[in-house]
UniProtKB/TrEMBL annotation:
This is Helix-turn-helix domain-containing protein. PANTHER family: ARAC-FAMILY TRANSCRIPTIONAL REGULATOR. Keywords: DNA-binding, Membrane, Transcription, Transcription regulation, Transmembrane, Transmembrane helix. SMART domains: HTH_ARAC. InterPro entries: Homeodomain-like_sf, HTH_AraC, Tscrpt_reg_AraC-type_HTH. The keyword Chloroplast does not apply. The keyword Transmembrane helix applies. Residues 227-339 form the HTH araC/xylS-type domain. It comes from Flavobacterium cheonhonense. It holds the Pfam family HTH_18. The chain crosses the membrane at residues 6-23, 30-48, 60-80, 92-111, 123-141, 148-165, 185-205. Gene3D superfamilies: Homeodomain-like. PROSITE patterns: HTH_ARAC_FAMILY_2 (PS01124).
Length: 344
């Protein structure tokens, strides 16, 4: 029965990897390769774990271990959550426990009898992987974000925790929990893995977009702007705000800026949206907010109301001013002024 589950999971896994790899250009690079690595490590575990080796009974193929899957899954979730595009080299350090675990496995095979120190170190390393999984769960439930990995992480955490308990009991000479014995542990884990592949297969076949973050197709992909022009236009836009203070005009439009700087409107939008990660209104309003704060701190403006200063720096109404100020500073203008007075 267990071997049948392994074969089914293996076939499903190969299908999932094939579909993902075929459509890899549709997904964000880092999260794609982390999930891909995670799934490959699961397939290796199905093929060659020492307790459930699919081809050679009781043979340990060192890298075919469930801990590699845990590390990949942890990193996948980490990048899925923060949406970072590029992999940070320092994050390779998260694979150190896997390297140490592999070394211990090799030593365990080479030594003529069981070594107490190696057993202790293995338990410590297993706890590291449990921590990885717990961190995933903590991030999910505190961030109010639910993604499909959660449903598989929870049972894997439970299994690994009880596996650590059993290893600890074994070291100190007590009877292990039979329900979570090594053989049962691997059987349960294979069942979870089989369902994992089934779930992903189903989602891929139904074109579900939540398996992996999709690459965003830019509406400016056919733009004629080159790097030199982009930098020039960025500089012109910033100078128009910092030096010319165009934002003081409460009716300032993108057309006004286009005519003033002699830059086509669609290029202004492209530079702001694509290369400065903002939009026209946020761009000018941020300068208005900073100008408001600068004037608020000036004692010569104490006779003016908050709204009076706001109108003077380009805002058109009290409601829009309050909303925009809170968006950038996290406080209402009144709260900000109160904090300013207290600090002074």
């Amino acid at each position: 029965m267990l071997q049948t589950i392994q074969i089914i999971a293996l076939i499903q896994g190969i299908f999932v990897l094939f579909v993902l790899f075929t459509n890899r250009k549709d997904y964000k690079k880092t999260t794609f390769w982390l999930l891909f690595g995670s799934l490959i490590s699961v397939l290796l575990y199905i093929l060659g774990d020492d307790k459930n080796n699919l081809f050679v009974e009781n043979t340990d193929w060192f890298l075919f271990d469930n801990t590699l899957f845990v590390t990949f899954l942890f990193l996948f979730f980490k990048y899925y959550k923060n949406e970072r595009e590029k992999f940070i080299k320092s994050n390779y350090l998260f694979f150190l426990p896997n390297i140490f675990y592999l070394i211990l496995e090799v030593l365990e095979i080479k030594l003529p009898k069981e070594n107490f120190n190696i057993e202790i170190l293995e338990v410590i390393l297993e706890l590291t992987f449990v921590i990885y999984l717990v961190l995933i769960l903590h991030s999910v439930f505190t961030n109010k974000r639910r993604i499909w990995t959660t449903y598989f992480v929870i049972p894997i955490v439970i299994l690994l925790v009880f596996s650590c308990i059993n290893d600890t009991l074994k070291i100190i000479g007590l009877k292990e929990l039979s329900f979570f014995s090594n053989q049962n542990f691997n059987s349960y884990l294979l069942l979870i893995v089989a369902f994992l592949f089934y779930f992903i297969s189903f989602k891929l076949l139904t074109n579900n977009k939540y398996i992996l973050p999709k690459n965003e197709i830019s509406k400016y992909k056919n733009s004629n702007l080159n790097t030199k022009l982009i930098e020039q236009y960025k500089s012109d836009l910033i100078n128009a705000m910092k030096i010319d203070k165009l934002y003081l005009n409460g009716k300032l439009s993108i057309q006004d800026v286009s005519e003033k700087l002699n830059i086509p409107k669609h290029y202004i939008s492209e530079v702001l949206n694509e290369h400065m990660k903002t939009n026209f209104q946020d761009f000018i309003n941020e300068y208005r907010v900073e100008e408001f704060i600068k004037r608020l701190k000036n004692d010569q403006n104490n006779q003016f109301t908050l709204l009076g200063i706001a109108i003077d720096v380009g805002f058109n109404s009290k409601s829009s001013f309050n909303a925009i100020f809170k968006k950038f500073k996290g406080l209402t203008p009144t709260e900000f002024k109160k904090n300013l007075v207290q600090n002074n």
